[in-house]
Amino acid sequence: MAIIFQKTKALTDQQFHYCPGCTHGIIHRLVGEVLEELGVIGKTIGVAPVGCSVLAYKYFNVDMQEASHGRAPAVATGIKRVDPSKIVFTYQGDGDLASIGTAEVVHAAHRSENITTIFVNNAIYGMTGGQMAPTTLPGQKATTAPNGRDPKHCGMPLKISEMLATIPGASYIERVSVHDPANIRKAKKAIKKAFEYQLSGKGFSLIEVLSTCPTNWGMNPTQSLKWLEDNMIPYYPLGIYKKLEEVE
Ligand SMILES: Cc1ncc(C[n+]2csc(CCOP(=O)(O)OP(=O)(O)O)c2C)c(N)n1
Q1: Among 21, 168, 181, 194, which lies 20 to 30 A Cα-Cα from 221?
Q2: Averaged pLDDT for residues 110-129
Q3: Does 222 score more than 60 pLDDT?
């Protein structure tokens, strides 16, 4: 029988612990498929964050290092500088990257560290039970904002891709989404492009992936995909925010 699909070798057989409808699993698969297609599984080191993907080291079939909350870009910097022949990526949520870890990612981009960051933006703190994140939308309910985010005293949500694109050291920045098959395909292309930038030594690359959190958004999986499309994409437009130069 002809094999038409096989799970990427870059993921282990460990069953994901993610909630039904959470798109972390899709994003793991895309990263894994890209690493396999680029032929770098054996020389990749990932840095797992604190957040729902804290157990990413169980799922990626590559060497993984745990970092303390928000510090993945600093840890990845050390790994890449010690052994530049390795492909090094961080995988971080919005609580991790856009809140406690803002300084680390800004300065990794500023120094143009030759690493790739996968930034999973689900507009909430997932692991800890749905607290408001810097990325939570105006009016969006969170356990720490039961009446919805009020920009008057919480400010407007932080747009990480737009912000990092202003940093000269950032080489490739793109925002994608995984709410439907067409966008999942685009997301994979973007992730591949980011790793290609690293392979060509072009410096810091980041892909922001808009993602769901049905459990903490209080929705079922189908509703959460629609909520992402209707509410997140208008505030967080998809597209390339920085592209230093074309990489063949
Ligand atoms: C120093 C420190 N502060 C706070 C926490 C608690 N904490 C764990 S995960 C998390 C936020 C996770 O949210 P996010 O990064 O958006 O990832 P998600 O779980 O939504 O995938 C927080 C605040 C911690 N573990 N360590």
Answers
A1: 194
A2: 98
A3: yes
